[in-house]
Fold this protein.
Amino acid sequence: MKIRKKARYVDPKQCNGCGECARVCPVVRPDAYQMGLSSRKAIHIPFPQAVPCSYILDMDACLGNLPIACGKCAEVCEKKAISYDEVDEVVVREVGAVIVAIGLDVYDPRGEDEYGYTRFENVITSMEFERLICAGGPTAGHFVRPSDHRRPVRIGFVQCVGSRNPRIGRPWCSNICCMNTVKDTLLLADHYPDTESVVFYQDIRSFGKSFEDMFVRSKAAGVRYVRGLPGEVTEDPETHNLVVTVENTSTGKLERHVLDMLVLSVGVEPAKDAKKISGLLTLSRTSDGFFLESHPKLKPVDAPTRGVWFAGFCESPKDIKDSVCQAGAAASRAGALLATGRVRVEAITSRIDGAVCTKCGLCAAVCPYGAIAWKKGEAAVVIEAACAGCGACGSTCKSDAITMRHFSDEQLIAQVRASLARKPEESVFVFACNWCSYAGGDMAGISRIAYPASNRIVRTMCSARVSDEMVLEAFRCGAAVVLVSGCHYADCHYINANRQTVKRLDRLWDKLERAKVRPERLQLEWISAAEGQKFAAVMKRLDALKRTVTPEEIAHTRAALARTGGDS
Amino acid sequence: MTPTPESFRCMACGHEYTELLEKGEDRERSCPKCRSNSIRHLKAAKRPAAAGEKGARKA
């Protein structure tokens, strides 16, 4: 693993943090840590608790790379800790485990200009509020409003800004904002008892230990909670007070609030670097952009790529306590792997015959784990430690160069033929994935849910393992109806291998239609392990469909697919 | 990215419908009528290229 260690331009071992350099530095920039509410010099300590507590030079702002122009900080540094010539260092480390903890980004309300954030000075975000009320903040804890530096008395909080809003592509709940606002109202009540706080909300989500108690205390402290988000925010041009119009959905009445300050409780979003990291480590992300865990219940800290774990917000919105829990779990999981010193490889993996491989690279393109190494003009090679055995590659390979151990083409085709050896025209042939659909069938059984006995089930590890040839062979054997079933999208045990199933069925439906075979006889269903009822319902529906298939139709199907070889 | 309208057919009940689809969208599909997952993506029929257009047959 290559790690870029960015140049600090100040030797932390030499720097004693005296601050002389910052005093003489002529370059002033907005301080990002203080949300731009105060300034810093080009040479600065990023934030008060920074480790190591030494200065760092912002080379983009510094004039020092033109020594004639400046160089003052280096002149006054007695320790000679400053070097303008330092360059980024690339550190190479061999690692056995990776924990992804890249954190989050905060929603920027400027894009939508929600609630007049870009127009009115006294509309601030919850992050800016944090800095203003903090003793280490730009006003040393004196809570003032930006327009006139007077202490605001009537303060409004708007919840769910940039959260739970599909219209702006942010349908998720950010998890932390409700309790952050409750905490802020309690802080205000404690520091400034004459403050009148009002919170505009959709729902207050105060689940978690002691959270409901905090919410109750906030209400007891006089904080008013209005169920409804503001429809309009205007500003009095003279006083810079804000007029908020909101429908209180609890009373059904329109309310008008005159406030000194409005705080937007901004949501959080996946870090911008998440896409790059997902490419580096072959990770998947949900449609929201958060990293997808291996299993939502059983492996919540594991990445589907083995040897990688998640901690914190990058996996899903969570508060500090949950992040710490997840970090501990990830560290334990990684420690357990490193302590054994060995990696247990899946027994069910694919194997590529280099002599038969046509070097097309299709297998590498469909592998959700990036477990197939391929270069143009070279035969593909399976990285067995990374292969999880879904079989997507095996069913995609056009040259039969890939063998799936324990689920080979020969074995599965033999199962199809054996299952349909007797009365195939009375059969609904089912390919069921190991993890969900097959277990869904079991669930139907143990739940004593009756369904027709016409089905013939063959298990594959993933629905993506089912190749064109296997489906066509079932039809050639005389099956009236064929079902391919797998896990729901969110539950796919092989990251997203079942998306290949969808593409394959789309192609197969076209193929059947061209062969004048009724494409409706091929069906696709996502059935989870808990959906015994759905399994039974699908079987009943397909049994009814089977009854509509005539012997002539089956005879034609056999002839058409035999004649064309399924390659029409 | 601008979503484009795409047509789908439910292979279980035959219901045809159109949905706005964004490129790269990764969403499980189910029939709005019968909830089946047997959803076939109907590709738009290609319009024959007019004379002079790229791909048009030469006389």
Q: What stands out?
A: The longest strand of chain B covers residues 4-10. Chain B touches chain A at residues 11-12, 14, 25-29, 36-41 (CB under 8 Å). Chain B is about 0% helix and 30% strand.
